[in-house]
C-alpha cells in the first residue's frame, strides 16, 4: 500500500493539516474590524517610533510667540493661529503634533512594558500554582486573593509619590497591579488542561512532567493568555493616564497621552484642540486593542456570538 | 451559611493585617517626612513635635504602637490637619465617597444590564451593534475626558427640559443635594455601564443558547417570561463575580471624579495625604478602602450562592 | 384518517461560516394518535433537528421549509404565540441530558407547575398538588420533598423522570422524546423506558422516539424511520424494519448492534500470568462541612484479579462503580497525593508499588491505555502523527526521526488510517478515525497489555463494531492482553474471555464469559443483563424484566454495599465476600433471590 518514500512525502505535504492556530488566523483575517485595528495600530506604532522625523519641530522646543495657538485649519474659536503646526501648539508654544506622537511613545511603552511585566510574573506564578497543585496551589492563590483585596491603585500612588516619579517604577508598579488577573487566568487554564484526557494519555505514554508542560500545557494555554494580553495593554494605558491626571505621571518635558489630555481638559473651552487630538489618539488606540482582543477571542473560540 | 460567614470574617483579619503592615513600612521606608515641607524648626522644637507624634521611637516600636491603637479602633491624629483625628476626617469624607460609589454602581448595574440584555435579545441586529459600539467607546474614554465634556454641556451651556432652561452644578457637594450628584455619578458610572453591558450581553447570549432555555421554549413559555424567569438569573452570575474588580474600578474613578468636581470625599484626602506624608491619614484611608473591598467581595460571594443553588459555601 | 402529526417535504438548513449546511433534506413522515414512531439514526443523521425544526426550536442560524401539520393545522412558520400554545400543551418534549435541560436555579416543583400553569387554567395550590401526583406517577419516591429540590440535587435517572413529568402533566397528545435514555445507566434506562411504555398504554399518548439505539426502538416503536445524513433511508412497521430490512444501511446497522447471545471467537490464552492485582483499594478524600472531619470515598474497595498473557478481561459496571478508577490505579496513573491507594499490583513479578519513577516510566512501554473520548484524548494542537509518535519519542529517544516516522506510518496503515494523514489535526478527523489514532498510539510500543477504558462507548454502533473488530485483530496478531472496561455487557461479550462485574467499587461477580452470560448468579448481574436491549421487537415485547427499584445509592452511604445482602444490615461495616460457587465462577454473598 505504501509506495516509494518520495511519493508518500509528497502526499503528506498535499494533505498537510490545518492547525487550530492557522484556523484562528484565517478567521481573524476575515474579521474586518480586527484587521483594520491591526493596521491602525501598526501605523500608530511606526509614527511613534519615527516621531522625530515626522515633524520639523522638537517636542521640547518652547515658543512664547505661539502660546496656545490653533492650527490654521481649525474651524472653532481660537485666540491665535500657528501656521505649520498641524495640531496647533500648547500652553508654552510647543508643537502639539510632535508631542502627541511623543505621548504615544510613552503610553505605548508603558502599556507594553507593564503588560510584559504582568505577563512574566503572572504566567510563571499561575503555571506553577496550577501545575504543582495541592497545598502549594491553595497557598499561592490565597496570597493572590489577599492582594486582590488591596486597593492597588493606592499602592501605585504611594509608590509614585514616595519614590519620586521614576519611569521604571511606573512600569513595574502598573505591571504589579495587572499580574494578579493574569496569574488567575493562567492557573485556571493550567488546571483545566492538566485534567484533560490528552495529558493523561501523555503520562500513560511515559512523557515526563517537563515534557507535558512544554508539549501540551503551554501550547494549549497560549490562546486565552494572548487574548488577555491584548486587553491588558489598553487597561494599563488608561491607568497611566489616571496617574498622569493626578500629576503622578511622567515628568516634563517628556509627556504621555494622559498628561496631554489632562492639560487639554483644563483649557477645553478656549483651546479645544489641545484636548481633542491627544484624546482622539488615545481613544483610537484603546479601541484598536479592544477590537483585536475581541477578534482574537472570537477567532480562537469560534462560536456564534 | 452562618459558619461560612464567620470563617470569612476571620479570614479578613490576616488580610487586613498584611495590608496594614505593607502600607506602614512602605510609607516609612520612603524618603521624606510629614514635617519636611514646613519652615525649618529649631531642633528642640522638632524633637518635641516628633516626640508628640511618637516619631522618635524605633520604627518597630511605632509599628507596635500603631497596631495596639488600631486594635482599639483608634486611627490616630492626622499629621497635617492637626486639629482633627483621622477618624473624624474619614467620618466626614466617607459618606460622600460612599454615596457617590454606590449610586454610580447601582446606575451602572441597572442601565448596563438592561442594555446588555436588549443587545443579546437582538443579537447580530442593528440594536446589538449600536449598543456594543457605544459600549466600546465607553470603555476607551477616560473619566477625566468625559467629566469636562459633561461639565461643558450640562453645567455651562445648560439644557432645556419642558421649556425650562437650567444648568447643573459642576462643583461642590452641596450637602449631598441631588443636582450636585448628577454629573459626578454619571461620569463615574459611564465606564462601568459599558463594561456591565458587554458582560451581560455575553452571558445572556450564552444562556439563551442553553439547553434549559430550549426546554422552557418547548414548554411553550412566552419569550419575556423565559428571559425573566429562566435566563436572567443565570446570566447575572458573571456580573456578581465582576463586583470585586468593579469596586476597584469605582475607587480609582472616584479619586479622579472627586478631584474634578471638588467633592470632599476620602479619595481626595488620600492623594493629598500621600503627597504630604501624612502617615496616619494614608493608613486610615487604605484600611477603610480595603475593608470596603473585602466586605463587597464577601457580599458578592453570598449573593452568588443565593443566585445559584449549585454553589455550596463551605 | 387524518394523522396527528404530518410532516411533508421538510428541509432544515443552517447558515454556517462555511456556507449553508442541510441537516434535514426533504423528509416526510406521519404519526397517528396513540402511535409510537421510532426515528433511528447515527450521529449527524439530523434526527434531533427534525423535530426541533418542526416545532420552531432551531438555533438562530437555522431555518425550516416544507409543511408541518398538527391535527390538520399548518404550524411551520406559525406565530410565536400559536406555537407557544401548542408546545408544552398538546405536544411536549423530553430531551437528552436532563442536567443541562432543566433550569438550575428553579426547583423541580416550579418547573413542573410552570408547564401546567402556562397551558391550563389552574390555581397555584392545585398545580402543586397535580405536580406532586405526577412525580409520584413517574415513580419518584418522596414526591412532596422532591418538589422543593433543585435539579442538581437529584440523580440522573430522577432528573429524566422530572423531564417526563413536565412533558406529561398537561396531558399531551404527542410526546417527542429525543434520546431520552442516552446518558443514563442501563438499569436506569430500563426504568425510564418502562415509564414511557406505561404512559403510552395508559394515557394513549402518541410518542415520537428519537434514538441511535436499535434496541430502544425495537422495544417501543410501532413504526420506524431510519435516517442517515438528513434523509430517510427506510421506513415501515417495526417488525418489517427489523426482520426484513430492505436498505443496506438498515441491515448494516442491525448487524453492528452488539448482542448478548453472540460470543466472538476468541484467541487462546496462555497460562502465564502478566498482571496480578491483590486487594486493591483507592480512596478519595471528600471535604466535609465546617468542623467536620473529611470523609473518604472508596472508589475501589478490595478488588483482586489476575490477567493471563493473551487474555481479555472485561470489567463491567455502571457509573460510580469505580471501573475507570480501577483502570488508572492499575496503570499507576492516579495523581499522587490526591488518592489513597492500598493493595498490591504485580506486573510480571515486579511489585509496581516498589518501582521508582524512572523504572515505572520505562515499564510503561509494556502497558498502554485507550480512552473513551477519542477527541478529548488527543491534543488538539498536535498533528495526529505526532500524537502517535509521542510514546516512541518518550521511551525510545535514541530512534532517529526517520525511523519514528516510518514506524508511525506503518502503525497508521495497520489501524486502517491513511498514512498520508500524518500531519492532520484531530478536529479534521471523524470520531472513529480519532479512536484509531488513539489505538495506534497505544500499540506503537508493542505493549503486552492495553487497557481499553470505555474505548468504544462514545462511537456510533457501526463505527463501534469496526473498532471492536480492529482491537480483536490486533490481539490475535500480537498476543496482547486486554483489560476491556465498559458499561455495556453486550460489547464486552464479543471480546472477553472472562468478565468481572463491579458494583460501587467491589466485585460482585467474576466468571468466564460463557458461565456469566448463561448463568448469572448475582442479582445485580442479572438486573444488568436483563436491562440490555436487543434489536428484536418480538423478544423485547415479550420479555419480562428484572428491574432494580430505586436509584444506585451513594457510595458514601455505608449501607450501600449491603443493598443485595439486607440480612446483614445490622452490621454496617460488613462487606460481602466473594464465594466460588462453581469452578472459576466467583459471586459476592447476597440474599436469596425471591
Task: Give structural notes.
The complex is a heterotrimer of chains A (305), B (314) and C (594). Chain A has 305 residues and is mainly α. Chain A has helices at residues 5-14, 20-30, 32-49, 51-54, 96-132, 134-148, 152-162, 167-194, 197-204, 209-245, 257-266, 273-300. Chain B is mostly helical. A two-stranded antiparallel ribbon of chain B has the order 1-2. Chain C has 594 residues and is an alpha/beta fold. In chain C, strands 16-17-18-13-19-20-22-21 form an 8-stranded mixed beta sheet, sandwiched between helices. A 6-stranded mixed beta sheet of chain C has the order 6-7-8-3-9-10, sandwiched between helices. Chain C has a 4-stranded antiparallel beta sheet with strand order 2-1-4-5. The chains are: A mainly alpha (305), B mainly alpha (314), C alpha/beta (594). Chains in contact: A-B, A-C, B-C. At the A-B interface, α6, α7, α10, α11 and α12 of A face α1, α5, α6, α10 and α11 of B.
Write the layout of secondary structure elements.
The complex is a heterotrimer of chains A (305), B (314) and C (594).
Chain A: H1 5-14, H2 20-30, H3 32-49, H4 51-54, H5 96-132, H6 134-148, H7 152-162, H8 167-194, H9 197-204, H10 209-245, H11 257-266, H12 273-300
Chain B: H1 2-29, H2 43-52, H3 59-71, H4 86-121, H5 126-140, H6 143-157, E1 159-161, E2 164-166, H7 178-208, H8 211-218, H9 223-235, H10 237-260, H11 266-276, H12 279-307
Antiparallel strand pairs in B: 1-2
Chain C: E1 5-16, E2 19-31, E3 36-41, H1 47-54, E4 62-70, E5 73-74, H2 80-86, E6 91-94, H3 98-101, H4 108-119, H5 124-137, H6 143-146, H7 156-168, E7 174-178, H8 186-203, E8 206-211, H9 214-220, E9 223-228, E10 231-237, H10 238-243, H11 248-256, E11 273-286, E12 295-308, E13 312-316, H12 323-330, E14 340-347, E15 350-351, H13 357-363, E16 367-370, H14 384-395, H15 401-414, H16 431-443, E17 449-453, H17 461-478, E18 481-486, H18 489-495, E19 498-503, E20 506-512, H19 513-518, H20 523-531, H21 537-542, E21 578-582, E22 585-588
Parallel strand pairs in C: 3-8, 3-9, 6-7, 7-8, 13-18, 13-19, 16-17, 17-18
Antiparallel strand pairs in C: 1-2, 1-4, 4-5, 9-10, 11-12, 11-14, 14-15, 19-20, 20-22, 21-22
